Amino acid sequence: MPCNKLTYNGKQDWEPIAARMDERRNPDAKVDAIVRDILADVKARGDEALAEYTRKFDCDIFTPAMIRVPAEAIARALEEIPADDAAILTEAIGRIRDFHANQKEKSWWTTGEDGTILGQMVRPVDRVGLYVPGGQGGETPLISSLIMNAVPAQVAGVSSIAVASPPRKDGTLNPYILATAALLGLEEIHLAGSAWAIAALAYGTKTIAPCDVLAGPGNIFVATAKSQLIGQVGIDMVAGPSEIAILADGSANPSWLAADMLSQAEHDPLAAAILVTPDAALAEDVCLELEDRCAALPRCQIAGSSLEKWGMVVTVPDQATGLDLINRLAPEHLELAVADPWAILSQVRHAGAIFMGHFSPEPVGDYFAGPNHVLPTLRTVRFSSALSVQNFCKKSSVIATTPGYVAEHGGKIARLARLEGLEAHARSVECRTR
What we know:
CATH superfamily of the largest domain: Nitrogenase molybdenum iron protein domain
Oligomer: single chain
Helix content: 40-55%
Shape: globular
CATH topology of the largest domain: Rossmann fold
Largest sheet: 6 strands, parallel
Number of strands: 14
CATH class of the largest domain: Alpha Beta
């Protein structure tokens, strides 16, 4: 299992790396057309279309009556998982909720001397739809995805949250997803997957009410469906394959670095794991560790394919050059596996989540620490951020001007309107000054 070994000495070496990383975008025009037809079909036929797609791809006995998961099944699921697991989930939910509580924004107001009041009113959206992938036929439930998407919506104050996830072959949902929903206090869960689930959450059906914002990860069909709905509903982001970059110095443990790279490589053959280091000996040691550790993984084939195609061990002349490369990569996850990460944190301009030092591996953030693990990928972190409470809020400007304000400034406003050729705008103000 070879891992690509590169040298980066400065921006003159960036273009080949950028070209390689851009290949992961994997556009597919055929998927666009398929998804467009699915969206139109679900919009037209609702529950019947959902049931038909679900019979074809997930459960051959599925009917429209099975779409909504009964409330008793959600409550019963807590009895079907070990109490210790429920306790871990409860603690993780609490930590993630505490972190997101700090993101809440307040409405605000300013008052001028003339009595003018200006402000911004922050309100949650009315209804949110969350998609949770099934995960290997329902046997690897993506419970962390449910938590990371539901908690910020709840903290925002969203009053109505619907969850959609594909059923297993027997028409049920993994009890861990249901139990997690119960612990979150979620009561509306629907059995639907892929692009047809996204369509149902956006447009609504007889069973599923339409939503204002959609969030949650998924395959290329889910991502494409969300991208085609931009402008009709809000979405969290169009996420690509996972990625991690690690900046390491001689104080790092090569075995730990290899483990961290593999933690991303096992996600997907398109995932990218990149080590950047000025220590040539460390680079060689990590390459050896990657081979040994990958062979022992249950997902060794996926991880090996990822490392062979997209994995990189990049040697740089010094830490400053390494930071330059990191900022150009703009990674989803960044580990600063160096002796003093706090000394260089301010030099990191582009990273979705930053893990500080040798005892902050990326999975800590995936599951437990508190920050959201839904992060921008494919260098979009240059202009976007992690999923947050703000994704589920909207802001309204509030303007209350007085007769004195209009009398004093009306002529100026009318002049600006006329410069744009908008006479009715000008007269709207002037009629209040006579």
